[in-house]
Amino acid sequence: MTDALDQQTTDPSEATHPKPRARTHFKRILVTGLVILVPVTLTVYILKQIFDFMDGIFAPVIDKAIGVYLPGFHIPGLGLLLTLLVVLLLGWLSTNVVGRRLIQGAEALICRIPVAKSIYSATKGVLEAVSFDQSEAFQRVVLIEYPKENIFALAFVTKSARWPELSPKTSDVLLVFVPTTPNPTSGFLLLVPRSEAIAMPMSVEEGIRMVISGGILLPDLARPAAVPTDLPD
Q: Do 144 and 107 sit in the same domain of this protein?
């Protein structure tokens, strides 16, 4: 009888507590799976569209040329091969003056088309933001108080400068780039006193991912820093 009364007087919250916890755990697992699956799916889909597009342009011409000697013959995987060749060709052209002028002319032509300009600029901006060259342009990730006191912004250090002849406040400053979200190619260039910049224990790539994701992808700041956190001279 006593045992029955004890069971009846048990706090109802204790019985219902595991359910929210299980629901939260399930939601966390679901979101984590989506974070892994969605980028992979989008990457495969975009690459497939590029390969199909290249294959649709070149395959009929090549098949027609080969068909003179081998009727009905088709080369499988031609889109993949031609895409790789085009990527290598564009990369090679960008390394010389003539090639760069040709690419700049093509970009200027695309930018004259209103809708194409928006798509091209946004796509190029994201790719440049996550590219190796762009990340190499930044030296460190720091926190600065911006736009006002007690509000912090993530910034990337590009250079340092010492201009004591201008003002005592500019005797030792850092040139930092404060990016916008989700397009980190636009932002603000600020000059911040070195003493007011807080070094962050994260790599530049982690900082860029954090900006692009709007703070969803946060690095583990509790782990040992992967890069030195001292600010460059």
A: no
Q: Is residue 208 domain-resident?
A: yes
Residues ≥6 apart with Cβ < 8 Å to 134: 128, 208
Q: In 3-state terms, what secondary structure has residue 63?
A: helix
| pTM confidence score | 0.47
Q: Provide the token pair at 150.
A: 């007690």
pLDDT tens by residue, 42-90: 888 887 887 778 777 777 777 777 776 777 666 766 667 777 888 888 8
Dihedral angle over CA of 55, 58, 60, 64, nearest 10? -140
- Supply 195's token pair: 């003493």
Q: Do residue 35 and residue 83 come from a single domain?
A: yes
Is residue 231 included in any domain, yes or no? no
Buried b (16+ CB within 10 A) or exposed e, 33-54: eeeeeeeeeeeeeeeeeebeeb
Tell me, yes or no, whether 23 and 91 share the same domain. yes
